[in-house]
Predict the structure.
Amino acid sequence: MEDRPKRGYVSRLRQDNAEATRLRIAEAARALMLERGYAATTMGDVAAAAGVAVQTLYTACPGGKPGLAKVVYDVTLAGDAQPLPQHARPAVQAIIAEPDPVRKLARYAEMVLTVIQRVGPVHGVLRAAAAATPPTAPCTTSWPRPNGSGAPAPAARPSTSPRPGYCGPASPSTGPPTRSTR
């Protein structure tokens, strides 16, 4: 008898349900983190707000609370939970396809403004968490790139810290730390 390789199991319904669950989790966690801050947001509270079991939360967000913060950041950056690289998203494709340089720049500026408005509050919460607890806080500069695209994260910059993975102190009024030029 001939051994045939098993056919891969793919269920579009399951994928859609997983995407919807991930989006619910990200939206619930985002709302709680913006309301309470990173430290005061518990995995149990996020699971309850998203209507999922705590184990489902850990499965959807590997890495515990820092993994949850990454999911929140990625979904907020993208605007949805689809596993689609930034370069393949409709707004970016519209910019690429635009032949007129002035309209191309206008589309780009509109897209950047939209992304900044979405990401800004979440980024502020995560930066504040990094400043409060440097060794264990989430740090957007040390995460793998969203959707494996290899594109730099919006906060990517050379480290100015003597501790790997530490983003440095920041506040909405002062912004990220900078390297001294003295």
In short: Helices lie at 12-36, 43-50, 54-60, 64-78, 90-97, 101-132.
